[in-house]
TrEMBL record:
EC supergroup of this enzyme: isomerase
Organism: Brassica carinata
EC number: 5.3.1.6
Annotated catalysed reactions: aldehydo-D-ribose 5-phosphate = D-ribulose 5-phosphate
PANTHER family: RIBOSE-5-PHOSPHATE ISOMERASE, RIBOSE-5-PHOSPHATE ISOMERASE 3, CHLOROPLASTIC-RELATED
Record keywords, A-Z: Isomerase
UniProt family annotation: Belongs to the ribose 5-phosphate isomerase family.
Gene3D superfamilies: 3.30.70.260, 3.40.50.1360
HAMAP family: Rib_5P_isom_A
MF-aspect GO terms: ribose-5-phosphate isomerase activity
Protein name in UniProt: ribose-5-phosphate isomerase
Pathway membership, UniProt: Carbohydrate degradation; pentose phosphate pathway; D-ribose 5-phosphate from D-ribulose 5-phosphate (non-oxidative stage): step 1/1
GO BP term, example: pentose-phosphate shunt, non-oxidative branch
Length: 236
């Protein structure tokens, strides 16, 4: 099975949790894309009705619109019944790293407002400790004096084993990547396991130029893991 087939298997399994009448948080990324496709298909087949989707990115909004999924937002629905989204890393306590697609702020707002948050991954995303895999831990920051804020992030992380902090670049001219919210992203590459995730999170969020980071601590209620040997469902 290819990685994308595993992602689709996990995504379809998560859509089994969807009931007619639900307000759904629609995730962003290559795994969540399969879940949104599946929801659109079931709506078209009449197997699901009265669904309202809350997209976590402009990209997902476009996909959902093309599928005819009725859309709304958190202002109209401050409580979401169920969110389905991918993740970049999942630890044994269901803490996540997300945001390598750049949508972490809207994802965290919508998934934080959800009664249930089902994470869908292929088995390659499972880790012992989040942030330790030399992959990026994304932090959304305001563009104003971004070098200052990146420097402050490096300072904070000195206390947690140190990190490299790199501005995420987009476009062909190598200019800064800009999020749906008009902000920048600094990708932090950590030297070693951060240890106390909650205190790292609090220290990062206290920096004035920081908007949000990609650690989703104690937020997921279920993770669906698709692997070569089948699909596992792990609850909080
Ligand atoms: O950027 C994001 O938050 C995505 O949801 C990411 O965490 C998972 O993306 P993938 O399904 O394409 O691996």
């Amino acid at each position: 099975l290819t990685q994308d087939e595993l992602k689709r298997i996990a995504a379809y399994k998560a859509v089994d949790f969807v009931k007619s009448g639900m307000v759904l948080g629609l995730g962003t990324g290559s795994t969540a894309r399969h879940a949104v496709d599946r929801i659109g298909e079931l709506l078209r087949q009449g197997k699901l009705e009265n669904i309202v989707g809350i997209p976590t990115s402009e990209k997902t909004e476009e996909q959902a619109l093309s599928l005819g999924i009725p859309l709304s937002d958190l202002d109209a629905h401050p409580v979401v019944d169920l969110s389905i989204d991918g993740a970049d890393e999942v630890d044994p306590y269901l803490n996540l790293v997300k945001g390598r697609g750049g949508s972490l702020l809207r994802e965290k707002m919508i998934e934080g407002a959800s009664k249930e948050f089902v994470v869908i991954v292929d088995e390659s995303k499972m880790v012992r400790h989040i942030g330790g895999s030399r992959m990026a831990l994304p932090v959304e920051i305001v563009p104003f004096c971004w070098r200052f804020t990146a420097g402050k992030l490096r300072e904070v992380m000195e206390g947690y084993g140190g990190c490299e902090a790199k501005l995420r670049l987009g476009g062909e001219k190598g200019e800064a990547f800009v999020t749906d919210n008009g902000n920048y992203i600094v990708d932090m590459y950590l030297e070693k396991d951060m240890g106390d995730l909650r205190s790292v999170s609090d220290e990062i969020l206290r920096l004035p130029g920081v908007v949000e980071h990609g650690m989703f601590l104690d937020m997921a209620s279920t993770v669906i893991i698709a692997g070569e040997l089948g699909v596992r469902i792990k609850n909080k």
